[in-house]
Amino acid sequence: xxxxxxxxxxxxxIGFATSRVFGEEGARVVMAARNAETLERSAxxxxxxTGCTVxxxxxxxxxxxxxxxxxxxxERTHGRIDILVNNASGKLPIGEFATMTSEAWLTAWTxxxxxYVTLARQVFPIMQRQNGGRIINVIGAHAARNPAPSYxxxxxxxxGLINFVKGLADLGAKHQILVTGVSPAGVDTGxxxxxxxxxxxxxxxxxxxEVSAEKSEYSLGRPAKxxxxxxxxxxxxxx
Length: 239
Fold this sequence. Notes:
Order of helices and strands: EHEHEHEHHEHHEHHH
Radius of gyration: 17 Å
């Protein structure tokens, strides 16, 4: 209750579910995403459901100055930042290794890993001054441990993020900053999940139905639901 939570990629999927569950717990939520209209619509839904304080900022977090704007806005509005949920990513490439350009790899790096690193670096000194905080990073466990040839950049980035989280956790512990990673396999986030399935199917020469039917990577025989991941994130943000 009353903790200040910054959630990126917050307008839909895991980010929206996470913002809502923190709202249900009485937190003050700052939601960030690219599309201002979608973001405000999502925020209004959470305000209506929970009655919590929700602020929004539309921003492109692949740009460092926009990350700085978000952090400054949250701190200026609430006087502190207790929890950062790193969840945003831009479009990540899927395709054949031999034809994927260096530019595509570097763009993928910027579109996820660098966002997480930049935001963590910017909130870290704030949390140091507060003598505590939480930095929670949504990663992709399946891709990190079992990389598929059709989406190697996603696997490499996820593995790098796991390494980053562990290192930052060791650094943060002495300041009571708990740094964790939440690493689900596939999560059915609706439109984005279907888009990813379509891109993966095209790159592997399969139909969407064939890719969807591959349940072996899910122990429960299905992808996770955003709300299930959000509950874990909220628990990690608690005392």
